[in-house]
Every structure is written in C-alpha cells, then in structure tokens.
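Reopening this ticket.

The earlier resolution said the output was attached, but the attachment link was broken on my side. Pasting everything inline this time so it's all in one place.
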Amino acid sequence: MRSKHHHGQSTLTTGIQIALVGVSAIGLLPHTALANPKQNANLKKLTEYYHTNPDSHTRCHGAWVQPKSPTQTKNQDEDNATGVDTSDGTVFAQADMGYWDNDDYAELSGDVIIEQSGRQVRAEKVTFKPSTGEINADGQVLFADGNTNPNTNTAGIIGVADNLKYADNQSAIATDIAFASTTMNAHGHAKQMTKHNNSHYEMQDVMFSTCPPNERKWHLDADSIDINTDTGRGIAKNAKLNLGDTPIFYLPYLNFPIDDRRATGFLLPNAGVSSDRIEINTPYYINLAPNYDLTLTPTIYSNTNPMLTGEFRYLTQNLGSGILTGSYLPNDKNYDDQDRSRLFYDHDWHSKKYPHLSVHGTYRYVSDRDYLNDFDTLGLENNPLNLPRRIWATYYNEHVNADLRVETFQSLDGTKSDGTPITDKDKPYSRLPQLSVNYTLPSNNALQLTGIHNTAYFKKSIKDNSEVEKSGVRMYNQLLASYPITKSWGYVTPKFGLTHLYASYDEDSLAGQNLTKEEGRYSIFAPHFSVDSGLFFEKQGSPFGWFKDSLGGYQTVSPRLKYTYTPYKNQANIPNFETDVATISYDQLLSDSWFLGYDRIQDLHAVTPAINYRYVDKNGLTRFDAGVAEQFLLEKTKVGIEDSQTFDRSHSGLAWQMSTQPKQNLWVDFAGALNPDYRFNSAIAQVRYQPNDKSLFNVGMIERKENKFTNQLAMSAYTASAIFPINNRWRVLSQAQYDHKNSRLLDALVGINYEDCCYGISVYARQYRNDLSPDSSKNHAIMAEVRLNGITSGGKLNRLLSDKVMGYDTAQQAWQRAY
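Inline output:
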C-alpha cells in the first residue's frame, strides 16, 4: 500500500497479498449476441482498451487488448523484483488505503487493483467478506479475464460496470456493464448481467457488435440473453439486427452458438435469384447425438411448390462416416406437375488396424435429367451426364497399390458436342467388379521387377439397338524387369516384359453376335523390350549470361534416345471396354504405348529421340524447363482401337512441353504437337500471374485440330480469371470460359466482394450452359451473400471459384488474413 494510516484495531500493510477464495472477474461469454447502442460512460471507458493500428493497409484498424497486469508491470519495471505469481489462486491486491477487520471484513479504497489467476478487478472502492466470498466493487469497476486456463471455454473478456457484486464464490451481478471480447474482437453493453455460476450468465437489455467501437455499422439488440458455456449455446429473446440505427430483421427467439459445439436450432437463411425464380431457404439443424446430426431445409420458390431437403451426417467409432442427402418437391408446376427428387450418399471408412486400407461408397440419384440444372441456382453441381454409384476399397504400401471396385451409373439423357443424342452405346460400362493392382517385387540389387494386373467384368446393356451388346470379362497382366545403370555422365535402362490379354463375351453378347463360347474367347501373349538412354551436360551460369549477377545458377542439356519393340498380335475381334488412344504429347511419346487402358496391346517398333533443357537458379528454383520429342516408327502399327483407326504414318510428328518462371510471381506453361506433316495439331498454354498473395490472374487456351486416329475432336477454347483487390476492403472476382470454335460463352462470372471488421458482402452474377445440352439456352443467376463477422462464414461463391480458378484457395486465405 502507498498509505500508512492506522485506525483502531485495523491492520494496514504495504502490498497486500492474501489468500481469498472466489475473487474473480465475471467470465463473460465468448460469443455474446446483442446490445443497445447508447454511448454511456462505461462504454467510453472501455474504449481505452481498443488500440488502433497506425497501418492504413490493414482492414481492421484496431483490436481489443487486455489491461496490463500489475504483477507483469512490476516484473518489467523492477529488474531485481521477483514479482507475484497468482496462477495458483493466490490473490494480489493493491490500493491507496486498506482496512482489515480481523473478524470478517476488509475494505480497499483509492485505485484498487485485485488480481487472481490472470483475472483483474479495478475500482475506486472494494469491500469483501473472506468467510463468504461476498465482494462489492463500485465506481466504474474494470474487470478483465485473461483466460489463463486453456481448458476453459471462457474467452478473453474486458468489462466496465457501475457496480459489481459477488454474492458468493461463483454468483455475481454487474449493472450498466460495457464488455469486450479480445478473442472475437467484439464488444457490447448490457443493463444488467447476472452470473449464476462459472458457466451460466443472464443479461438484460443487451447490445452486441463485432465492429470497432468508433465504426459500429451493425449491431444486434435483445431484451435478454441467456448464456451457458457448458452447452455452448446462447438464447436471445426479442432480438433485432440493425444496420446503423435502422432495424432490418427481427427474431422473437434466437438460439445461437457461442463456441464450435453443435446444437439444435435455426441457421441463418439464404436467398438467391436465378434467371427464372427467386428462392429462400431456412435450414434447421438438429443435434441428434454427439456423433450424428440432421439438417432439414425447407426451400420456397417464387414459381413452384416448396421443396424439403434433409442432410443426415454420422460418425461411427469403427465403421466410418457418411452423409446422406435427400430432396423432394411434389407436383412441380414447371415440369408437367411431376414429383422431383434426388438422393445422394457418401461413406468413408479407414482401417485402424491397417492404416493404408480404406473403403469408400458413393450413390447418386435424380428423378430427371434437368433436376441438377433446375435446382442448383449457381450451377455448382456441374450437371454430369453419368451419376456414379460405386463402392471401392484401396490399399497401398511400399510394394503394392490396389483398388477393388463395383461401379455402375445412372445415365441421364443428353446430347453430344455436335448436338446428336447420346445413345446406349455411348454410355460407360459398369464394372461388376474391377480389380486393379500395381506392384513392385522386392529386390536386393539394381534389378527392378514391376507388374500390373487389371481384371474386370464389364456390362453395358444395349436397349435402343444402337449396336449389338459387347459385355464380358477382360484380364490384363504385365510383368516388367528393368536394370537402370546410372553414371554422372548419363544413364541406360534396358527393360524386358511379357504381357497377357484375355477377354471373353458374356452370354447376352454371345447370343447377340451369334458366337459360341470358344469363338467369343480370346487370349494373346506379347513380349516387350525397350532401352531408354540419356546424357547429362551441365554448365554453370545463366542462359547467355543474362542473369549472371542476379540469379546465377546452372544449365543442363539432356539428349535422350529410347528404343521400343512390342511385336504385332492380332486383336481385331477383342472387345474394347475402356481403352482410348492418348493425344500426342511429349510424355506420351516417351512411354511404351499410345493406348490408355488395358483392352489393347500396341504393336510398337520405334525409336524416339528427345532433348531437354533446364535452367536452375542459385536458389534451386527451376526457371526454365523444356523438352522436344518425336517418335519414328521402324514398322507401321497394325493394332488400333477399331480396325479403321490404325496409324499408317512412319513418324508421329513433333511434340514439346515448356514450363518457365521468369519472375517470382509469373508462371508460363506451354505444350503442343505437330502432325506427321509438321502442321499444327494441338497446343495448350497457361499463364499465371500473382503480383501479391491476395491477387491472381490466369489466362489459358487450348487449340486442336481433328485427329481421327486418336479420336481427337477439333476444339478452340479460352479461359481467363482475375482476382484482385481494389483496396484493402474491396476486391473483384471474375472468371470466364469461351468456346471459340462454336462462338459461344460457356461460363462467365463477375462479382465484387467487400470486407471490413464488421461484415462482408459479395454480389455476383453468372451466365453458364447446361453440361448435358451445351446448345440449349443460357442460364443466368444473381446471388448476394452477407457475412456478419463472428456470426456467419463461408458461402457459395468461394466454393464455385475454388473449383473454377487455379490458385484461388491460396488467394482467399490471404484475403481473410488481411486484418
């Protein structure tokens, strides 16, 4: 103490340190809700602990901070002082004057500070009874809870009240209280707050906002709020959302979360506008148990009947987790009064005993081909033609990578890119089942033994007579042995292999083609030999000495030559279930086959020269990497996907790929090929520029000519996207895809996003086409999303751009951090 007056039998000491039980500040709500915006003296006093940030580039110009602890100040200011540790419940008390009645009364006055376990109370006068824990503090009482116990649900809280009374060790009442949460960066005011125990609080006449105190753009008002940190919920009655001083939304009853735990209650509604309707949905969340829940979402449309959607989530201890989603709309007025529905199911299981073993299941059903397009306002589902229904198990270790699956599809009616209807023969095969295994056999020397096994029963019923049915079993096995020889100057890798292909039609296909079992069964063996070789030439320095001083580094030139031989085996009658011919590319020309799939063994007798150039700077960053290759056929190939698709040229044509990073924030990728006449065949390019972590610009293009041998269709398309801030609060979001060949815009989105301490707003419009019918009319959608900081988050726009724009997630995270 700083004063030494004596009064009768009282005891006065300096630096009072006494063990009081129950002296603690009111631990206020981590996620309080609502308040009245009047500016009183306590609220003004509270703003002393809102520290502004002088950096004008930050989105939030300040933050709530805890008042300094007197014990911390002593330790900092006095080098030789040991300070006071109050973490064990010991009370530190300081005042101008102190009076202690040895019976059961104590009084402190004049700049009183009491601290215990990181909690503080500051007042002009404090009286207490140690035997009962009764405390009474008056005169702009400041209390602070620093949340020193990480196991509690209490957030860091500051408060200023006219009066603070502790009735016992847990219960307390504060009047005319202004409060702030340092963890939420939120503040508010209540006429009265009652603390029933360490987890239950009640407040009357409440105001709450996450805005800065000097820029309160929105706030919530409520007659009363009941907070329970044990359940993680708050209940507000007669609540209003205000923009400025204007009420815009009223809720007579609001059950809201105060932490991350789940509880039953309404979620915030969503609204959207498409080209033909307005929709509003109001999700209701039901916390059925700690490991499963249900969300029911009624949706009201402006032009048809309401829809009900349910989403059931579960998590089991040993059987995995899953999501079941169903929707139902009766008598759709816009669809000939038909009932419309969907059912989606996903399940995932990961073995605890075998960490590399997992099982997954997916089921998709919609009532009609237009369902996803009609009820997906922003086109997020991409409206696929074939909805998968599969269950598959995967396992891997250092030697084996295996996949066992059963898969079929719901195939919707649709059209091809040329506008013709999709028939049964164009639909994918079901796999009932399919086993795929890639393996490496252990070896104690440089010899590498690898293998492939792929077996499946493929089924596709032909009901429209578009072709005869061709279903059956296909088995593929390949064993390869290679012996890499690597030196500092280069490498040579000889490889030997044997491939076996077996196929047989099922009974339906045999009958449809008038074949016997023997005639519908095929088995062939084919050997394989190849030699892959290359040289390494390295030179210090940058290309032409351009970046010698700034980047340094080294350059490498690697000429490469590969010889491949697989003899011809007649496969004209073997069915093709899943195999296609790869588009000619640099990597493909250096592989052992042009086929993608296991229904064909390509006869290939060829030599492939290639060359690669690479520049790596002094920091190990690859600034330029490019390669060129061409394959020369020593014998013309005879095996094709179909008899009419054999390749009859003596060389493939030139193929190349290039990747460069001329600057730290600029990337350029370019690949393409020429046909055997050295005329243009295909090209794909991508340019990505990221001037800072919150900006992103992408431009891409693909141009290709028709190539009947590889089933390559002519295409000319361009893509572009731009995400960039206008300033620290506004940014632009956009992306587009344009079909130049058919002179039509496939997809375009433009939006603007605003963020500050108080709220975020996104307004965006999209024009897109139905994936099932690209020639049909365009769809339009306009959406607006409002996010109140501390209450709502996420949105459809983020989900859409994450799927459409490369690098968007990284830019989005940086934008969110810019506070």
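Reporter confirms the inline version is readable. The CA atoms of residues 56 and 672 lie 47 Å apart. Confidence is low (pLDDT under 50) at residues 1-39, 74-83, 148-155.
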